[in-house]
């Protein structure tokens, strides 16, 4: 059996995940991070994207928004704006969000509008990617 560590994934609305895990793979602003038990201490920014958590040898995918993480000797804490399992994602809503973001990007007015639209597009596309785990017929 692989070594485990305590993982807490927390959003402003709930504790998304709390338990022992073998590994988490999550996007940071510097690229993907794969975290195993005994990882060196690190504080990093989390980027919007799909991530994976391995518990009892089984991988489960999730959608994460931006935030931060802290790696300690035997504990990892992830603080993000939102986190969703595939079955929690409202695919129709994510598709509408993607289309709104694409429309805003096609007609940018101000730089901050473009950044918000790009982030909205990333969130929507991440949700759709993660939701497709349960729906192989979707993109």
How does this model look, in words?
The chain has 139 residues and is α+β, with helices and mostly antiparallel strands. The chain folds into two domains: 5-84, Sandwich (ATP Synthase, domain 1); 88-131, Single alpha-helices involved in coiled-coils or other helix-helix interfaces (Up-down Bundle). Helices cover 27% and strands 41% of the residues. It has helices at residues 91-106, 111-131, and strands at residues 5-10, 15-21, 23-28, 31-36, 42-46, 49-55, 58-64, 67-71, 75-80, 83-84. The strands form two sheets. A five-stranded mixed sheet has the order 2-1-9-8-5, with no helix packed on it. A hairpin with a 4-residue loop joins β1 and β2 (15-21). α1 runs antiparallel to α2 (111-131). The longest helix is centred in the last third of the chain and has 21 residues, at 111-131. The model has no long low-confidence stretch (mean pLDDT 91).
Element layout with pairings:
Layout: E1 5-10, E2 15-21, E3 23-28, E4 31-36, E5 42-46, E6 49-55, E7 58-64, E8 67-71, E9 75-80, E10 83-84, H1 91-106, H2 111-131
Helix pairs in contact: 1-2
Which properties best describe this structure?
41% strand; 5-stranded antiparallel β-sheet; ATP Synthase, domain 1; single chain; 27% helix; 2 domains; Single alpha-helices involved in coiled-coils or other helix-helix interfaces; 139 residues; alpha+beta; 5-stranded mixed β-sheet
Summed up, what is this model?
The chain is 27% helix and 41% strand. It has helices spanning 91-106, 111-131, and strands at residues 5-10, 15-21, 23-28, 31-36, 42-46, 49-55, 58-64, 67-71, 75-80, 83-84.
């Amino acid at each position: 059996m692989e070594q485990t560590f305590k993982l807490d994934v927390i959003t402003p609305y709930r504790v998304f995940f709390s338990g022992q895990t073998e590994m988490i793979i999550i996007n940071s602003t510097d690229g993907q991070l794969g975290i195993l038990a005994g990882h060196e201490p690190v504080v990093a920014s989390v980027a919007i994207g799909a991530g994976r958590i391995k518990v009892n040898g089984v991988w489960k995918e999730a959608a994460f928004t931006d935030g931060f993480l802290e790696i300690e000797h035997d504990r990892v804490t992830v603080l993000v704006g939102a986190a969703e399992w595939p079955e929690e994602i409202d695919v129709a809503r994510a598709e509408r969000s993607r289309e709104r973001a694409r429309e805003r990007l096609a007609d940018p007015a101000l730089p901050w509008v473009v950044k918000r639209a790009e982030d909205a597009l990333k969130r929507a596309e991440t949700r759709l990617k993660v939701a497709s785990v349960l729906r192989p017929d979707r993109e």
